[in-house]
Amino acid sequence: MTNPRAIRLRVVAVALCVCACIGVAQTSSNKRVDDKALRDAAKNGDEWLTYGRDYAETHYSPLKQIDTSNVRRLGLAWSWDTESPSGGRVEGTPLFSNGVLYGSLAWDVLFAVDARTGRMKWRYDPDIARQPIAGLCCGPVNRGVALYHGKVYAGLLDGRLIALNQETGKLVWQSRVIDDPGDILTSAVRVVKGKVIVGNSGAEQAVRGQFSAWDAETGKLAWRFYTVPGDPSKPFEQPELAMAAKTWNGDWWKMGGGGTVWDAMAYDPDADILYIGTGNGGPWSHVYRSPGGGDNLFLASVLAVKPETGKLVWYFQETPGDDWDFTSVQPMILADLTIDGKPRKVLLHAPKNGFFYVLDRLTGEFISGAKYARRVTWAHGLDSKGRPIEAKGDRATLDQAVTMSPGPGGAHNWQPMSYSPMTGLVYIPGQESSYTYRIDPNFKYVAGGRNLGMQGGLGPRLPNGGTGAPPPTPAAAAPAHEPEGAENEPKATGGFFVAWDPKTEKERWRVSNAGGFAGGGTLATAGNLVFHGSTAYNAETGEKVWEMDLGGADVTPITYMLDGKQYVTLFARGYPDNRLFTLVLDGNAEAPPTKEAGSPAR
Questions:
Q1: What torsion, rounded to 10 degrees, do the Cα atoms 115, 118, 124, 130 define?
Q2: Using an 8 Å Cβ cutoff, are 394 and 380 in contact?
Q3: Which has the closest alpha carbon to 204: 153, 160, 158, 260?
Q4: What is the rounded CA–CA span in Å between residue 255 and residue 446?
Q5: Measured between alpha carbons, how far is 439 from 285 in angstroms, rounded to an integer?
Q6: Number of folded domains in the chain?
Q7: Is 417 a member of any domain?
Q8: Which residues contact 144 (CB under 8 A, 6 or more apart)?
Q9: 75 by DSSP, 3-state: which?
Q10: pLDDT tens column, 35-94
Q11: Which residue of 252, 355, 432, 438 could cross-link 492, Cys pair, CB 3.0 to 4.6 Å?
Q12: pLDDT digit string, tens, across residues 280-316
């Protein structure tokens, strides 16, 4: 005879076993973003866990369900109205983990969206006053968030670094990174070895550049690296700054110097080196920033540091004595290449100045460099050490303005480039333009204001929003000249999209009039595709194979796998109609009509 109590015990045991199995299944499916996940991000394309998808910042995915043979079937799965606040572009690259998309909007509004349905899970608004920020260069933008240990991290325009609960969007901690007039945070943050890495913005306000590391669990400062030296009468914060100070003149520290870190970062886990790109000088002109010239380290440079201590390993300056807003914060890529028959671990970089650099990422040695923009008039080339061979007359003086290429928008800006190990090519979105640099003879530094030291549409601008610019003097209003040899350079063609071979330093193919500064970044995939915004090309030949009109203002796409299908997600459209678009093979959702520009502000 069966014992009823024994039956009940067996039922309970089976139930507990089923619950345990379900718990294990849920735990295994809810993959944790930790150090191992970030290190292994390059090995598969299922998720997009960090800004460049992997620590090498390749913006490359090994996914190939969508390829050149079927990409024409790519259609809309869903779109989400972000209700991004007015006054700023959306420039962020979203992240994808465990079926959820995370990202940032204008004015540092953060969000989580269900990737299956396009429904919002949570939204976090830091309530930053939506009014003109003193001297703000390029709008209230935020270029991206980071994920780690169940948290979402972002830097804010008011100088705070915050951590949110990944599931709820509730604030976990916040830390004050900077607290100086004109100093803001717009960079996409990264997490390396349990530390959140964030750099500042504001070189147009002539603030002092820096980047810092913060404990991801507690929000406590681990270390800070200043990119330009401070007051030499006081102890330098880092030993490297004593050497850097020898490359400056005058009283540069009274204004700040520039060198802000508002974009490029990458990490090599094997070498345990963190790579950082630094920004332009502040003020722009060395006439005011560093009278008498000098290389002004570490402006417009690539820095290699140890992520646990911030100790400098090596540096390479791409634009010595920057006079033109030629930042080196444009996204960089780490790759392993065979060059001249030898395997090399390299860093690939296309900064604003128009030259493509291949550096040894272990030592900082210059390997090669060439013009990736066809019109570059400020320098004739690079010497054997990678130093630019400047054209005569490329620097403006108080008596003479100069018109040259590229302009301050650069030949490449914030839009990420990508690298495909299949083709061996780097895909660069850029533009060719020119600008007249005219020094303001009446320039006076204003703390927190726009301090370019230049006349023209970019400033100076005061904290109250006024320009503060007096009428040009006769000397400053004199006709500008071009640098020597500019007449021999090709004419500017506007936006371009180029496939660049880093081994030969030559272009493989090029598309002209391809978006330029207003266009988005690029994504390369193992499907032999490269996406530039909402257009896809054959990665090998440059043939356009797909295009969809999403309404303009396309930003950098990402791709991932969900329920056995490959998706592509990107932001598009400007205010008041910014949307997050998600595409899939045979997607048949209809894109909502664009809103009228006069729609109410949010």
A1: 130
A2: no
A3: 260
A4: 9
A5: 7
A6: 1
A7: yes
A8: 51, 92, 93, 94, 95, 103, 104, 154, 188, 189
A9: strand
A10: 999 999 999 899 999 999 999 999 999 999 999 999 999 999 999 999 999 888 899 999
A11: 432
A12: 999 999 999 999 999 999 999 999 999 999 999 999 9
Q: What is the pLDDT of residue 87?
A: 81
| 14 inside domain | no
CA distance 395 to 482: 10
User: Per this entry, what is the length of the chain?
Assistant: 602
Question: Both tokens of residue 324?
Answer: 């033109």
Contact 247, 279 (CB under 8 A): no
Q: Is residue 2 part of a domain?
A: no
Given a contact cutoff of 8 angstroms between Cβ atoms, the answer to whether 429 and 418 are in contact is no
Measure the CA–CA gap between 443 and 117, rounded to whole angstroms. 54
The residue type found at 194 is: G
The rounded distance, in Å, linking the Cα atoms of 553 and 573 is: 5
Examine residue 571 and say whether the peptide bond preceding it is cis (omega within 30 degrees of 0).
no
CATH code of the domain containing 572: 2.140.10.10
Distance CA 32, CA 26 (A): 12
Residue type for 483, please?
Answer: P
Cβ–Cβ < 8 Å for 171, 164: yes
Triad 491, 139, 50: Cα angle to 5°: 90
Going by DSSP bridges, is the β-strand pair 529-532/522-525 parallel, antiparallel, or unpaired? antiparallel
Using 50, 70 and 90 to split pLDDT, how confident is the model at 478?
A: confident
Q: Which residue has the tokens 């290699």?
A: 304
Report the C-alpha gap between 348 and 270 in whole angstroms.
17
Whose structure tokens read 């953060």? 110
Distance CA 341, CA 362 (A): 18
Range of the domain at 396: 27-585
Q: Which two tokens stand for residue 28?
A: 């295994």
**Cα distance between residue 598 and residue 576, in whole Å:** 8
Instruction: Let me know if residue 593 belongs to a domain.
Output: no
